[in-house]
Please model this.
Amino acid sequence: MDIALFSTSSLFACDDDASVDEETTETNQSYVERKHNFPGMELLIREFSFHQVNANLLWPGTFTFAEWLVKHPSCIEGRRCIELGSGTGALAIFLRKRFKLDITTSDYEDQEIEENIAHNCRANGISPVLPHIKHTWGDAFPATDPDWDMVIASDILLYVKQYSNLVKTLYFLLKSFKPSDGESLPLMENEQNGETPAGLPRPAFLMSWRRRIGKEDESLFFAGCEEAGLDVKHLGSRVYCISPKQAR
Model:
């Protein structure tokens, strides 16, 4: 796994920055705790000062994704969900509190990440804490028979060299899902404004992307998904739905 050695603030423009209060509690060399504004609630999130795979901070896609999901709740209501690249766990915590979503967090195989997500769950009244899976993209997935019908992520396209591994993991999770007997797979349907979907395929990968990288690098990921037999659809506001072709 490549290690990021640059300032996180250089990755996105000022208008993408999240609404963050001043540091509110204890600070030391390893982490800070800050209050972050999500739609309809405030969450207290512990963020590491540095992490080798950028699992330490909240990125702008987290907040724009939360706002988008609040506007389009039918996309996730009733789903069993797993989040890739959960980082601090803030988005998953928000979705559990706002929608009572059945959600599992996952990230790079690092005990500190898992412990920090658990800490943030407890700090925000999530008990028992959310289930968590340690997994490195491209490796054999720990759950051999996954049944999540929704995979989500925000701002995870930083490491271009990991795109093929990410696609491999996505393909496994999406193709492994089996609906229950008699359960149908709904088609993509449009809302009244004709712009964004009221319902998404099952299974599906729903991703928000707000970080700044080159368009050519960004397109490599979507091209890799298409080559793997996955459909890519832009839903607006830099939110994308990726699903197996036969699910449509």
